[in-house]
Amino acid sequence: MLAQSQPPQAVPADLDGRHNYPVLISLFNQLFAARLNTRLVLGDHEPLYLPADDDCGYHRIIFAHGFFASALHELAHWCVAGEARRQQLDYGYWYIPDGRTAAQQQAFEQVEGRAQAVEWLLARACDFRFQVSVDNLTGEAGDSSAFKQIVFSSLQQLLATGVNERVGALVATFGQHFGAENMLDVTTYCVEQLD
């Protein structure tokens, strides 16, 4: 994998001008490069989390192909991962690629629900449309309405118990930059908002 610290010349065609990944990289790195030795990095291939090692002295959250949504998704996984997980390649999580059985998909959705709830908060803070992802295009995706309910319930629980410091800092910083409001008000969310 080749990770770049500088954005390429071409910007993906799906960006609207406000939602471009260099802004996310800058905002994230201002918050966490020094404090938690972690940087958001544009990648050329699949997303990946790489802890600091002998070749690179800082942790890297690598997102795919310059897509704003990919960056938000990878940030959400980083926000959910605890300290020990952030010392492991891809947080030490198992991952069965696209093509999962119904049972494997159900296990995936139980784990993924919390991360996508955080992603929803981050997207709202960026005034960016959030879409749930069952991430199983060639397998047995199951009932997406059930997964939407998992994400919504995870969001409700997260807001009821309070977000962690990393989520809070990102939500506040993104909200200020993008002019978003009510990101942490549970009454502004409903399951019907999920695509």
From TrEMBL:
It is an enzyme of class 1 (oxidoreductase). Keywords: Elongation factor, Oxidoreductase, Protein biosynthesis. InterPro entries: EpmC (IPR007411). GO terms for molecular function: oxidoreductase activity; translation elongation factor activity. Its EC number is 1.14.-.-. This is Elongation factor P hydroxylase.
